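Weekly modeling sync, notes
Attendees: S.R. (lead), two postdocs, one rotation student

Agenda item 3: backlog of single-chain predictions. S.R. asked that every request posted to the team notebook include the full sequence so nobody has to chase files. The rotation student volunteered to paste the first one in as an example of the format we agreed on. Action items at the bottom.

Example entry:
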Amino acid sequence: MIKKKMIAMLLAGGQGSRLGVLTSEVAKPAVSFGGKYRIIDFPLSNCVNSGVDTVGVLTQYRPLQLNKHIGIGIPWDLDRRVGGVSVLPPYEKTGDTEWYTGTANAIYQNLEFMERYNPDYVLILSGDHIYKMDYEEMLSEHKKKGADVSIASMPVPWEEASRFGIVVTDENRRITAFQEKPKEPKSNLASMGIYIFDWPVLKEALITLKDVPECDFGKHIIPYCFDQQKKLYTYEFTGYWKDVGTLSSYWEANMELVELVPDFNLYEEYWKIYTETDSMLPEYMAPSSSVEKCIIGGGSEIYGTVKHSVLGSNVIVGEGSVIEDSIVMAGAQIGRNVKIRKAIIAENAVIGDGSVLGEGKFAESKLDKRVYCAELVTVAADSVIPAGVSVGLNTAIVGATEASDYPGGRLEDGGFIVKAGEKA
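Predicted structure, as returned to the notebook:
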């Protein structure tokens, strides 16, 4: 029988609906980040840097791009004969097919996969956070404390604590209470959704609660372990960690990367972030170009001005165009004399000559006030914006739009265009 000290189960099946049109065709963990990476690269790189060589990636929503990106795990040195990376979608069973209905339910449906490795410990991860963490260090603390369950946590501002699962601890870091998004939090230590379980403890909880609808770790598994008087401890993390689950937080995390001394360093030699990359030409800066405080992906051609922005690979910026405070993903084409400010432009979008994106004043979204609540212009993958139009603040565009979609040549502040057959 194969025996592994610790395996990781990486939850990557979420839609990420708060990212709006960015996740209309791809799962949140597959969204581009920092020019050349995708969000899932960060937990996968943490695994290989921590010596965890067996990872199950649980996919569900729009998995095609994510599956293609992961492949057989070569960029992360996870193409192993024993272990490595395995993509684990819901599968058809005798009699019926069951979608994953909660984080714990997804893990339960893959008991057979975990039993194959007979691990001592199981590491549960989320595929949609940006951070660097040594899971081996967390495991060392888990063993030192004699814990049954360890929950990674970090301090958050008290006014934000009610948004998180909150752990309350004694002086030895043993968890004495766990509050799921409490109205009156007793602590400001927020769960990061990163858990280490002794394998027998996790297996027992999953089997016992297998019939609970939408079984979830924070709502069901952790309270069950409390009820069974298991030893739960917290591992307090003090490094950079960012939940990029909203358009604003996603934009802010990218913009932080181009500061002179970024809080989150993508280029540290001792803790590299790995990703799948195609062979490409170096970027080209034309004599007419100007670039200031930017990340520019390989193969890009810059003929205009780019300031304080993150550009992916193979982006073209036409002569006379100005891009500021924006994210432009791989393969996007920006025409001539285009003005773009505070925009997120997804992969392979085309922006016509002379158009202006991000001018006006903030107005409430007419599409979804919970998702679109900042000044950002958000353009979905493969969308087309015609020449000479103006796009206001807090707007969303999906599909190959035409001049007739812009009354008076403008998309008003807070407005949206979703072409027939497209998904917002």
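Discussion: group reviewed the output briefly. The mean pLDDT is 91.
Action items: rotation student to repeat for the remaining queue; S.R. to check formatting next week.
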